[in-house]
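User: Histidine--tRNA ligase, Lichenifustis flavocetrariae:
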Amino acid sequence: MPTASPQEPTLAKARLPRGLVDRLPTDIAATDRLVAAIREVYTLYGFEPVETPFIEYTEALGKFLPDLDRPNEGVFSFKDDDESWLSLRYDLTAPLARFVAENYASLPKPYRSFRAGYVFRNEKPGPGRFRQFMQFDADTVGTASVAADAEFCIMAADCLERLGISRGDYVIKVNNRKVLDGVMEAIGLGEAAEAGRRLTVLRAIDKLDRLGPAGVTALLGSGRKDESGDFTKGAGLDDASISRVLAFTEAGAATAGATLDQLRSVVGSSERGLEGVAELGDIADLIAAACYDDGRIRIDPSVVRGLEYYTGPVFEAELTFSITGDDGKAVRFGSVGGGGRYDGLVARFRGETVPATGFSIGISRLQAALQAVGSPIVTSVVPPGPVVVLVLDRDHLAHYQALVTTLRKAGIAAELYLGTSGMNAQLKYADKRNSRCAVIQGTNERDAAGGAQVMIRDLVLGAELAKASKDRTDYLELRQKAQAAVPEAQMVEAVREVLGRHGA
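Assistant: Predicted structure for Histidine--tRNA ligase:
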């Protein structure tokens, strides 16, 4: 009687979750250069680094996040062993508010800091919309002066130009949530009981660039169905209220003064609205004094920002150029950063108002834009790989290890080949590692008259040698440079010469 064969084990599927991406060496190197350039600008402005963890208590993140009232939506959450809810951070601002509140007594006020890191959003993924992405924030906590808000607008402009975005290809747009509060009062949504509908209005206006006036009108009214068939419930405003909200977003004019005049007309007699207009006037004066009122920074009522915690000036960095996509259609990157004043966030922990303002750059989106315009900061260049020490005689493995150690002690990135292949395969491996140089030692080199030698292979010239012309003189000259035997004691110097030849 035949015996049953054991059941084959089920293999796990190698698949990446939706809304996430794997990052390769070229991507990582580009991000490192991008972050370093932004850090230079932030440091120039007197900000210092701080780092907060990926995970916070859910209550520390507040009720300011989309869909937080739906269990496990908006943020990725889980329970700790003490039954406390923890969440992956949604942005870098709420964790900073917790940090400042917890360390308030020891921090200088105003407290100026920056931080870069990944944030996580439990939302529906889509084109260019990821569940994990990197942000780079700077914040000033402890001052109510609009000079702090104006400074972020100026610094944002400096950042974009430092990254290779030409003047005229971007604009920093500034508005004030107090002005919008005045509009909300005028349409009957000023009371605390209307907080939900106010947030719906905010998010509708925030989609103006993407959906246009018709799409925003639908979201301000009964709702909108997108291309996939998903329906988003609207704010339920009547036609008169929708017209007033749209008039607010369309109040921008050719000059800051004309824009402010139109905003005063929209907010009417609302004290809070008029206070917001006055603050915008002060910011406009500061921008002009710094000579950034040449089109780089402008007052724009269409900017509201989607998060509810903003309490005053808000700003957004927008790229204004277009590129041609793979389908031949024009693609515009739009917003690559934004921020604003959030005077209530730290107060949630301390019970007293602690004024704060900040600016956040979306690194992933900005990196894609910089690659599109060919910025040298993110040019897709494969980083040089390590020097590879080949292993030709397994019984001399310890000596090969000593060669690698010598290179590393000299500050040269190096690795010992750990596979089982022969010499040609090892050289192909070094090519795949993007190595500029390989160190080779076989029996002939080790037993050379006059002492042990190593062969230094210039892998870049070696590749050129394979394509060399038939001219014998050129061939021999290239071959001589591509590979040379040197005494072991001169290995480091010879390797450095090869690496320097190729800028590695």
